[in-house]
Amino acid sequence: MKHWLASFHRLASPPIFFRLAGRIMPWSLALAILSGGIGLVWGLVYAPADYLQGESVRILYIHVPAAWMSLAIWAFMAFAAIAALVWRTKVAETLAMAAAPIGACFTAITLLTGSLWGRPTWGTYWVWDARLTSELILLFLYLGVIGLYRTIEDPRRAARAASVLILVGLVNLPIIRYSVEWWSTLHQPASIRLSGSSIHPQMLWPLLVMALATKFYFLWAVLARARMMLAENESNKQWVRDLWREGRL
Amino acid sequence: MSASRAFLATLGRDLAAYWRRPGELLQPLWFAALVSTLLPLALGPESERLAIVAGGFSWIAALLAGLLGLDHIFRRDAEEGVLDQLLLAPVPLSLIVAGKFLAHWLVHGLPLALLLPLLALWLGLPPALLPTLALGLLLGTPLLSAIGGIAAALTVGLRGSGILLVLLVAPLYVPVLIFGAGAVEAGASGLSPRQPLLFLAAGVFLSLALAPWLAAKALRAALS
Predict the structure, then answer these.
(1) Tell me: the pLDDT tens digits for B17-57?
(2) Annotated domain spans of chain A
(3) Deepest of A150, A195, B45, B94, by most Cβ within 10 A of its Cβ?
(4) Going by C-beta distance under 8 Å and a sequence separation of 6 or more, which residues neighbour residue A75?
(5) Distance (Å) from the C-alpha of residue B181 to the closest C-alpha of chain A?
């Protein structure tokens, strides 16, 4: 059977992954810059100001996509962690570890923009609200994964240990997702669902474009980091030496 | 040796090992009593204020006291080389780990779950909330042992890993704290504590299925 799934396993080979990632990266970077540029100009300049929140609503064009990414990256890491624990492939281990600092950054951006938005809207930078607190816990979880990975010297053992931690931390994801529905808190429930959105299209579209931009940025960043980590960990292998000699590294 | 006998043998061996160091067993209980005495000193002795915070505080005390004993699960076995033998044993490692977790809960979690409601009552918890708190702690402490045990397995190969273990475990304890303290909170405001307690029970069953497997993976990653 000549199916694309049939050759999926070849991605587990570091040189093949390295080459493919190198081919995807410029495209995802270009798309990230393009959609990010459109989304930012659209959201920050052309989209209407909110009649309740005024101009500060524009912070949400960054806050909401970053918050989505903070959860989506952990889910991505969990998939990679399962692959790392079950099939023990270097590429999966590297991808999980490469994603952690990016996820931590998106979580920090979420908390920062959220507190900047909360000052004019809620009248306070911070409340001990269920969603705010659980997002902060998510940041600590990301830091824990990075910390454990850095503490164990052998990168492969470190990645497998951190993968277990990622899977255990997965229980926090539904808690963050449903915190605004289970507990009546200050943070509003989601306005955008699969069944439809309560946001006006003029505000919804720039938001979705920004969400797309963060996805492409993440794809570029995680591939770039994973490539370098692979090359570093495999620096004594022939394929890395070949790349080095040909000046393609 | 059959799998169930391996489980029982590990359980018996670990219980005997804990029993031979009774001083260590008392430390978490001692710690819980100690922090409970600190609370009135920090917040002032007004009984109305203490009554409000007593339930949530018991949960914090349970979490902190639970952190103390985590290092015992694997540390000594690792230092004496027993753990390397267990990794090589021809029985599923997850069952051995499950035995170790159960032994840890029996000597660390269960006494805490029995003592802390009494301490909370002493601090002024309304007696009507006592069953909710006690049931929550009985359901929550096995979860604390399971989650903490996984993290202990992750850090067992590291030198001076005590503080890292605490940093890794504390955020993972958050769901247990939310539902445990949430049950007491719900009871205090006149609502049914059923939902958070059911979530805790669901967590226990989930951890029964997953925690030994994950901890076995963690041990192999940390020691191989």
Answers:
(1) 888 888 888 888 999 999 988 888 888 888 888 888 888 89
(2) 27-188+199-245
(3) B94
(4) A170, A173
(5) 13
Q: Spell out the CATH class of A27-188+199-245.
A: mainly alpha
B201: which 2 tokens?
């029970």
For residue B48, how many C-alpha atoms fall within 13 Å in the half-sphere facing its CB?
Answer: 0
Write the DSSP string, B140-160.
HHHHHHHHHHHHHHHTTTSTT
Q: What letter does residue B188 receive in the DSSP assignment?
A: H
Run of H or E including A193 = strand A192-193
Q: So what's the pLDDT on residue A109?
A: 95
Question: Using beta carbons and an 8 Å cutoff, which residues of A are at the interface with B?
Answer: 85, 130, 134, 137, 140-141, 144, 147-148, 151-152, 157, 160-161, 163-165, 167-169, 171-172, 175
Structure tokens at B30: 């001692």
CB contact under 8 A, B175 and A172: yes
- Number of compact structural domains in chain B: 1
Mean predicted lDDT score pLDDT of chain A = 85
Predicted-complex ipTM score: 0.79
